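Build the 3D complex.
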Amino acid sequence: MAKLVDRPKADLVIRSYIPEVLRGLRVTSRHFWVNFLTRKNVVTIEYPEEKYPYPPRFRGQHRLMKREDDSVRCVACFLCATACPADCITIKAGERSDKNEKYPVSFEIDYIRCIFCGMCEEACPCDAIRLDSGDHKLPGYTREEEVLQKEDLLAKGGLSIAKQGGILQ
Amino acid sequence: MDWMFMLIALLKVLVVLVVFVLMLGAVLTWVERRMSALIQDRLGPNRAQIGNVRAWGLLHPIADMFKAFTKEDFVPAGANRMLFFLAPAIALASTLACFAVIPFGPGEHFTIAPLDSGMLFIIAIGSFGIYGVALGGWASNNNFGLLGALRGAAQLVSYEVTMGLNLVGVFAVFGTMSLSQLVLGQGELLWGWLPKWGVVVQPVGFVLFLIASMAENKRAPFDLPEGESEIIGYFAEFSAMRFATFFLTEFVEIVLIAAIAATVFFGGWQIPWLDPQGVAGGFITVAQIGFFVFKIIALCWLQMLIRWTLPRFRYDQLMNLGWKVLLPLSLANIVVTAIVLALS
Ligand code: SF4
Ligand code: SF4
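Done.
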């Protein structure tokens, strides 16, 4: 059923605009002077000098984790590269001499393609790749700059003492 | 017309237009962005810097200028090149020409061209600006540009009438059309304490004039010819320096409106309650010019505040306001003024 909406006719004071316009001007000029003199209400964060803290679950630039002996945790199983929907991880595998394991000879992530979905992190059985560096890849001028190598990713990496290969061994 | 006269006139033009008006216009493009930001609790552009000098972003107009000069100067296919080239120039030139008759200080030296009918000159030359709008839209061979030009032409014609009529009241009160005479007339005090400014004797005239001239300036809440935020309007096809010229014209017009309003309604260079005899001659002149500039800046600020406060009118509301509200009100204002003047 149609509902009758009450639409009161505006009186002459309102229709003359003037008082309402003056009220609007009061609001804007108050904001102007307060911010001009004290910057009290300004919410701007002046980015490069001042950064907004990212939330703890922020997915930023990848890092490759290390074992206790400082070697890379990654066993070059290619699960992350397979899981990656953007197809941006390129791994070349090699044999480790000290253990019966593989390791990545090279490990590239192409940040032009990466969508920071975190699938690689979830797929990894070794807690070797994480997106929790809390930082994001800085923009660059060339395409080459946007592809990070194993060394770059390891530089941000930290120690992980999770059991290699998960709980089942 | 000897060369000395020409030289002095040229010098005045240089000082007033290049040093004061264009500078202020360019700075206003930055002020507008900073001010809108502060009103909206932001900071606005403050990063342009040369070396380590940042000056709160005051260098942004310079950066903008470099940007405008280095961009591609695009002329659309089928455009009328001649008119396309002329339109921004007409818009800017006609606005700048109006400053010729503004008295910046006491005496003839501070006016570029002291005319007896200065105000008529401003109204006549100022309405040339409409050609910039109309030709710009027409020459760009773009439907949206043409529609914007149509809206602009209709709006400017409508509000020109109100703008002119509201000055009539002031002319009647002071009995002159010469701007310097007007300013001299406003130096008196009413009842010994109230400065006899135009805004005091013609308050309704001032409000109507301000509304009409802001509509002439084509800025929000009357920015229908352009509709910067979405429809662009008559300068849709203009880029690079041509666009920058239109853009600068807008800000020069703000200065012009402020200058006219300060001269006609706020006593020009007069400093109320100050006895000119008491202070040394040179100093008082400087103070008066400074006070005039201060009035101009304050009025520019007011216009920007209004621009960032009010939303845009709909086109029919704009026409209704112009023809059905402002025009009758300004006519009534003239009639009342005439009656009061005849009685007193
Ligand atoms: S975050 Fe997503 S897109 Fe980026 S590398 Fe990992 S799986 Fe690929
Ligand atoms: S899933 Fe983990 S262990 Fe496997 S290749 Fe990727 S990073 Fe290395």
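Chain A has a mean pLDDT of 87.
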